């Protein structure tokens, strides 16, 4: 299974984006995770969603602002981000840990 993250872009501070992670095959039995990596910084673990749809936001700064969801019929996992700030800038990746998708760049301007 291959994963592809999309939905990134340039947004002003305070804005919102909804990222999608589309799988080439079924991921209904997989937990899917989101990571992000800001320029010149280490990768951060953002969130997971289990196969049954239980979401967990691990990144403290994202709690209350990010929502992770999934649509198994579409083999897609979403990351809805709101109240974005420049510190949210980075490349966002989705993964089942067996497979990593190409990331999508999120740039938040101040």
Describe the overall structure.
32% of the residues are buried. 0% of the residues lie in helices and 50% in strands. It has 110 residues and is mainly beta. The chain contains no helices and ten strands. It has a six-stranded mixed sheet with strand order 2-10-9-4-5-6, with no helix packed on it. It has a four-stranded antiparallel sheet with strand order 1-3-8-7, with no helix packed on it.
List the helices and strands and how they pair.
Blueprint: E1 3-6, E2 9-12, E3 17-23, E4 32-37, E5 43-49, E6 55-57, E7 66-71, E8 76-81, E9 90-95, E10 104-109
Parallel strand pairs: 2-10
Antiparallel strand pairs: 1-3, 3-8, 4-5, 4-9, 5-6, 7-8, 9-10
DSSP E strands, number: 10
Q: Average the pLDDT over all residues and give the rounded result.
A: 96
Portion in helices:
under 10%
Number of helices: 0
Please state the structural category.
mainly beta
| Radius of gyration based on Cα positions | 13 Å
Flag low-confidence runs.
none
| Widest sheet, order of strands | 2-10-9-4-5-6
Specify the biggest β-sheet: 6 strands, mixed
Distance between the termini: 37 Å
**Shape call:** globular
Strand content: over 45%
Topology as a string of helices (H) and strands (E): EEEEEEEEEE
